[in-house]
Design brief:
The structure holds two protein chains of two kinds.
Chain A: H1 39-43, H2 55-60, H3 62-68, H4 74-90, H5 92-110, E1 114-119, H6 121-129, H7 136-144, E2 151-154, E3 160-163, E4 169-172, H8 190-204, H9 207-215, H10 231-242, E5 255-263, H11 269-281, E6 296-304, H12 310-324, E7 328-333, E8 345-347, H13 356-368, E9 378-380, H14 381-421, H15 425-435, H16 439-448, E10 457-458, E11 463-464, H17 469-482, H18 486-503, H19 506-522, H20 526-529, H21 533-550, H22 554-568, H23 572-588, H24 594-614, H25 623-639, H26 643-658, H27 670-697, H28 704-719, H29 722-737
Parallel strand pairs in A: 1-4, 1-5, 5-6, 6-7
Antiparallel strand pairs in A: 2-3, 8-9, 10-11
Chain B: E1 2-8, E2 14-21, H1 39-57, E3 65-72, E4 77-83, E5 89-95, H2 100-103, H3 106-112, H4 123-144, H5 158-171
Antiparallel strand pairs in B: 1-2, 1-5, 3-4, 4-5
Helix pairs in contact in B: 4-5
Classes of the chains: A alpha/beta, B alpha+beta.
């Protein structure tokens, strides 16, 4: 089951085990103005895409829903969520497929085609006057993350599939061209460190901050199932996936299309368009040599409803159409700033895929403006409708056909030749030199072809030129991946793996290995047919080794391993075992910081927990291991001061230990149970004192959570053995009444120093 | 190399625990776990968690000595298992010392790279642990024959402990 808001399940031929029925519960807390579906505008579009009206409002509210809905106070969450933790263990099968769809959807959506925006200054001016200080791109960006309605994509064999969670990533054209080559970039690695910084920020925030931000009640579902993915981990995953840098070795961020926008206020519109185009072709915005410059150009005329004459704009638009063909759009916007108090104001959805750096900036802004309420921007409803239909038309009618077209072309021209000759590189590169146009490349490729090395690789800069077969194949594979044709993508990456390896293009090699593993894992058809876990293991090994050791690129290594873990986790026993192994490897390689470390520990626990469901009755699965890692996570959360989360993990662990038949649990291991008790006690104490502080602030009203935790504390302390017994009893008694101790202090320091755990 | 040896009853309670260090290659027989003081409970956690694997492997293997069954990478701990009668399990956690090359001199490092103290998965180690397990099994059986011992009881005999540590000195 998918959660109601953001993963409207993609229509996919899911493997039988995962194809649970998706109940179409439309979120109920929707505010009425968001109900307005842009059907009116999309209905007028040519019917390339069948967009059933029912799906439109649902998906259109997805993003804003996630941000705006908040959850009940955190104390309550921890109580009820822990109960859910147990229920999820009781029926692990249902819960893991649930989270799998969630994770999978997150991963799939994170790879979306990049559409560059190149707007004329007057267009940016309109956006600025509407309150988007960073211009046109900032205004359209949230709308690109989820295209309204279903988007139909044809794969290489000609079968169509409709996706209703398709999105594009709007970037500023040329923004990334400057810092292109990852290894030579002085700012190298910074998104990686910022990710950790960001996580720390979120963890330090009061917990309601996160709840409103992204958890969206993930710990607590209306239907009572629990997601095992903690909100923090979800955040970690989505930020990690959007932290990707512009790099020669993969083309996901290379523009698929470029939106060239002018406004109706422009005096010489056609001339400006030509200039802008010229800039993209040979001017300041020309792409580096490894970026394929044959991306689609899409021309947009932004009509200013408040100031300019519509008939004039229409005439201009007609002219544009004559000049530039069908890839044009007339976007009618009002240039006045929309205030929240206006009748038809609509909150602009927040961006889901912020890179860590952007998110940090956003958080800083929120901190600075804590007292003013200008955090969210608003747009007129008519503008929102116009933007949505613009994005839809752009994606459904131009971007996707363009990509399909390129995929078919390259598949035909490049890939099938390669496949046919199967590995005999020499003849291939000869064929290709006839095809290409650069003579210097010709000579080099011929000279290198004898030794099985294509010679197309520029090892100094670490790039392939965009028109070499290797680069085109990679582009083909990436396009296929973006269009979610994982079979074609996987087979192409497979081909590239060896090529890059022969050329010693290590970063490309790592990238191809990574994506090969991931697209194989994402391919729903391959689930039953070939679960060659060894193969994935090998590919991940190569990819992470190449990324980390040869290219010292920890960020990509982390992405590779995290994706592998997430996708492997649900593929049965051995795969989950491998996933756990890799998750532990993340910690070993030191790819994550303190917070990331905890999140990964939680993930290891859930990898083992996933095996509980898949194991047959004879084996107990990996309950002890799951419990053990939960305890480790609890301990680490506790050290970070997040006692609520620590308490949750402990509850999990207890549930796991409790569910092992034929075992007396941990009580006879003396030090172990002592440690557990102390952890329990410390966490409960902290929670109790915290909720007491809260209730003191709120006029001394005793809340049920406090009662509960107080009781819990007393119970725990009674069970304690001799030395700690008296003191903790004393504290537990004193705490609610007089508060002799400072509330933050622990009743009894842990006898074992935690700092020298030395997990690395 | 540091060792933590534990005998676990069928109901997962420890009957006997013993912590010792290597006596080979100039070791003094004192355990030095890399996670320091926390190892006291961490080792128990690790061993307890590996029972999951024991329960799986015991059905796939006809031998009593199940060899190296599990690792815990964060502390580089390796676990070997020996199944005794009535589903009593002997588990040995072994952890190579932190920096094998720096601690040993040039003279010994060439020899000891494949010997017991440094490579936990080498055949030599497996063989040594097997010998150790067999010897402990023998002692254990003899202890069980004591008229004052009932099955499932904690083993408190100092003689047993002495003999186990002697076996440890001899083989590990």
């Amino acid at each position: 089951m998918t959660s109601p808001e953001d993963d409207v399940a993609p229509v996919k031929p899911a493997p039988p085990s995962l194809s649970t029925v998706i109940p179409l519960h439309v979120a109920k807390t929707r505010s009425p103005e968001r109900d307005e579906s842009p059907q009116a505008s999309t209905a007028s579009l040519p019917l390339r895409t069948s967009s059933p009206p029912a799906s439109t409002p649902r998906s259109s509210i997805g993003i804003s829903e996630r941000i705006s809905r908040s959850v009940s106070p955190h104390g309550r969450i921890s109580m009820s969520a822990s109960r859910m933790g147990r229920s999820s263990i009781a029926s692990p099968l249902s819960s893991y497929s649930d989270t799998y769809d969630d994770t999978r959807s997150l991963i799939v959506r994170s790879f979306s085609p990049a559409v560059a925006i190149y707007a004329s200054p007057d267009t940016d001016e309109i956006a600025r006057s509407k309150g988007f200080k960073n211009g046109f791109r900032e205004m359209v960006r949230p709308f690109g993350e989820r295209v309204t309605g279903k988007v139909v994509v044809r794969d290489s064999v000609g079968s169509s599939r409709a996706w209703d969670d398709f999105g594009v990533r709007f970037t500023n054209l040329g923004e990334d061209f400057g810092n292109d080559r990852g290894s030579m970039n002085p700012k190298y690695g910074s998104p990686f460190t910022r990710l950790e910084e960001l996580l720390e920020r979120y963890v330090e925030m009061p917990s309601d901050g996160l709840d409103t931000y992204s958890s969206d009640g993930r710990l607590m579902r209306p239907d009572g199932t629990a997601s095992q993915m903690s909100p923090y981990y979800r955040l970690f995953l989505s930020r990690l996936l959007s932290a990707t840098m512009f790099s020669p070795h993969e083309t996901f961020l290379h523009p698929v299309a470029c939106v060239i926008a002018i406004s109706s206020g422009n005096e010489a519109p056609i001339e400006t368009l030509r200039q802008l185009y010229a800039q993209t072709a040979q001017g300041s915005k020309v792409s580096p040599s490894f970026v394929n410059p044959e991306y689609l150009r899409y021309y947009v005329l932004v009509h200013d409803e408040d100031r300019d004459d519509l008939s004039k704009s229409k005439a201009l638009f007609e002219q544009m159409k004559r000049h530039f063909g069908i890839h044009c759009h007339l976007l009618r916007l009002r240039s006045d700033e929309c205030l929240p108090s206006d009748d038809d104001s609509v909150e602009v959805p927040a961006c889901e895929w912020l890179s860590p750096a952007e998110d940090l900036v956003r958080l800083n802004e929120i901190d600075n403006l804590i007292h003013m309420d200008i955090d969210l921007s608003y747009l007129f409803e008519s503008d929102v409708t116009a933007l949505k239909s613009f994005v839809r038309e752009l994606v459904a009618q131009s971007v996707i056909p363009h990509m399909e077209n390129r995929v078919a072309f390259w598949n035909d021209q490049v890939a099938s030749r390669r496949r046919g000759i199967s590995g005999r590189f020499m003849s291939i590169s000869k064929k290709w030199t006839g095809f290409g146009s650069i003579s210097s490349r010709n000579s080099s490729s011929q000279s290198g072809s004898g030794s099985g090395v294509s010679g197309n690789y520029d090892s100094l800069q670490g790039i392939y030129r965009y028109d070499t077969p290797e680069a085109l194949l990679r582009k083909l594979a990436d396009y296929a991946f973006l269009l979610r044709d994982y079979k074609l993508a996987a087979s192409t990456y497979e081909m590239l793996r060896t090529d890059y390896g022969n050329d010693k293009a290590w970063k490309h090699h790592a990238g191809a290995n990574e994506m090969c593993a991931i697209s194989n894992l994402l391919n729903p058809m391959a689930t039953a047919a070939k679960t060659r876990v060894d193969g994935f293991d090998q590919m991940m090994e190569t990819a992470s080794y190449s990324y980390l050791t040869r290219c010292s690129d920890p960020q990509n290594a982390l992405r590779c391993v995290v994706l592998g873990v997430e996708l492997l986790k649900v593929r049965g026993r051995t795969a989950a075992e491998t996933a756990a192994k890799w998750a532990i490897r993340i910690q070993e390689l030191g790819l994550v910081g303190a917070v990331g470390h905890v999140l990964v520990s939680e993930r290891v626990a859930s990898c083992f927990a996933a095996q509980v469901g898949t194991s047959s009755g004879a084996f107990s699965g990996r309950k002890r291991k799951a419990a053990f890692w939960s305890i480790m996570a609890a301990d680490e959360w506790f050290k970070l001061g997040k006692t609520e989360l620590a308490a949750l993990r402990l509850e999990d662990a207890d549930a796991f230990y409790g569910s092992i038949v034929s075992s007396e649990g941990t009580q006879h291991f003396k030090e172990m149970s002592l440690f557990l008790e102390q952890l329990h006690l410390a966490i409960n104490m902290k929670n109790a004192s915290r909720s007491r502080n809260v209730s003191n602030v709120s006029n001394g009203v005793l809340e049920p959570e406090e009662e509960a935790s107080k009781q819990l504390t007393e119970e725990t302390s009674e069970q304690l053995s001799a030395p700690s017994h008296r003191r903790s009893m004393l504290v537990a008694d004193n705490l609610p009444n007089t508060g002799l101790l400072s509330p933050g202090r622990l009743p009894r320091p842990d006898p074992f120093p935690h700092e020298d755990d030395d997990f690395e | 190399m540091s060792y933590y040896f534990v005998i676990i009853s069928p109901t997962d309670s420890p009957l006997f625990e013993h912590t010792f260090g290597t006596s080979k290659a100039g070791g003094d027989g004192v355990a030095r776990f890399r996670n320091g003081e926390t190892s006291r409970y961490m080792n128990q956690f690790i061993v307890h968690a590996s029972l999951d694997v024991v329960e799986e492997v015991q059905w796939l293997n006809n031998n009593m000595y199940l060899k190296h069954i599990d690792t815990y990478p964060p502390t580089n701990s390796h676990i070997s298992c020996f199944l005794a009668g009535t589903n009593v399990r002997f588990l040995l956690l072994h952890q190579p010392s932190t920096a094998p090359t720096t601690s040993s001199s040039n003279r010994s490092s060439t020899i000891s790279s494949t010997s017991v103290p440094h490579n936990p998965t080498s055949p030599q180690t497996e063989e040594a642990i097997k010998q150790f397990m067999n010897e402990v099994f023998e002692i254990w059986v003899k202890t069980l024959m004591s008229p004052f011992y009932r099955i499932g009881m904690h083993i408190k005999s100092p003689i047993f402990r002495q003999r186990v540590s002697a076996a440890g000195r001899k083989w590990l």
